[in-house]
Amino acid sequence: MKSNYLISNKWKIPGWILLCTGLIVGVFLIASEFESDILKIKVLSIYNDDAMFSDNSGFFKVVENSILDEIIAIAIIIGGLLVGFSKEKVEDEFIYKLRKDSLVWAIIFNYIVLMFSIVFIYGFTFFDVLVYNMFTPLLFFIIRFNFLKVRSSQ
User: Are 106 and 133 in contact (CB under 8 A)?
Assistant: First the structure.
């Protein structure tokens, strides 16, 4: 089975390392409400609205920011993409069907969770839900695909 969108199987282990490291550090930072000046550098911001009457508000500004959370988010996304879209050792029609069904299931399940959140979660907590929602389709896909793969091998 030839799938043009899949990458080599050798990227699966680095993907798992990035994904797991990003998730562990991210959950730790969220759970501990850790605020740090670690990796605080000047970065280009497409739009900055830190303060209402600040001189630094507007488009294309250089701001000082800790990039730790951005690095963690990118690690989770890249790791998830590497894990989710790396070929299996045996990539046949059955694996292709599992992959497709898992992707469809993940998108539907993700939007059901999002609709539930829209109805029952409000304020800044809803903004947190939207931030986490960047990662959930990929995570739901990886969990579902690997669950079906393990279940089918038994």
Answer: no
